[in-house]
């Protein structure tokens, strides 16, 4: 078991607290089957053209407390077999950006990892990321079938007002809704993100990990991804909890297999 | 916000992505900070092919930082050869580490060269949310 990064500094009134879904991502990414896949894909020596020798960029969208990105940064050597992994994150909640930045930096320091922690930026999904630069993409989306929050309040709710030193209850409720409410089938945000994935992943070695719950109709989601083109693959590589015979949560790995 | 982060960011407006002018984002009225970190020689050597060098030169020029070499350094440029000793980081490597990983934008703006939109950096955190995202 690789150590779980500390998030004791995070205020969970307004930032999503690590839960079963977060831990499923950690377990999946550090499972021998997945590290085997990643080590092969990112092994600098495995390809003659040396396109693999440049440091992999890991992007997590919706970092929340930062526990998943921090885990990857701190354990990059075990997961990728490399000392030069770059991490980048985004979150729509500016409080999460600050909290996650600290989580990642502390985890890298404590683990004496050689990973390079770039910034956690405040943004909508991966809209500000330069196309085809991401090698490993991770997304624990707002997947609960629940009405999306009222984004009209975002500007007012995403920062502390000058006169207040703390957030209000309404503000906290809104910020937490952003982290779990996924609209119809819990898929509205995930579908927007899936639409961006082919544009952000690097062409030869990009791979994405997206968490889904049973209500998201994961089999349908995977089938739709395979329709992106003949080179696209989507497979369940981790799961937890049974709900009436179905996996409650699962991690889908999305990648393209370019024939060489 | 580290300058290396800017190597991977572009204007968040969808219609800007196809325009070369949307990258890099141009710093405006930036207050810089230095946060020291350990130099990772293997990383510096490996990252070279991933750097958009001329755009990086543009950013450092716009920030008034010391000029970078006109062409991207090679892996050998990163190491100062010393007989019978461990590899030592060259001055070029130290300068590059300083620029990419220790120099950050604390406060200021980042402007898209295509649409002119200015993204704010507050306390080191860049805000790339657009009003359109939130409707
Ligand atoms: Zn633009």
Automatic annotation (TrEMBL), chain A:
The keyword S-adenosyl-L-methionine applies. GO terms for biological process: methylation. GO terms for molecular function: protein methyltransferase activity; S-adenosylmethionine-dependent methyltransferase activity. It comes from the Eukaryota. One of its GO terms (cellular component) is eRF1 methyltransferase complex. The keyword Methyltransferase applies. Keywords: Methyltransferase, S-adenosyl-L-methionine, Transferase. InterPro entries: Euk-Arch_PrmC-MTase, SAM-dependent_MTases_sf. CDD domains: AdoMet_MTases (cd02440). This is N(5)-glutamine methyltransferas-like protein MTQ2. It comes from Polyplosphaeria fusca. The lineage of its organism: Eukaryota, Fungi, Dikarya, Ascomycota, Pezizomycotina.
UniProtKB/TrEMBL annotation, chain B:
It comes from the Eukaryota. It holds the Pfam family Trm112p. GO terms for biological process: rRNA (guanine-N7)-methylation; tRNA methylation. Transmembrane segments: none annotated. GO terms for molecular function: protein heterodimerization activity. Belongs to the TRM112 family. PANTHER family: MULTIFUNCTIONAL METHYLTRANSFERASE SUBUNIT TRM112-LIKE PROTEIN, UPF0315 PROTEIN-RELATED. This is Trm112p-domain-containing protein. It comes from Polyplosphaeria fusca.
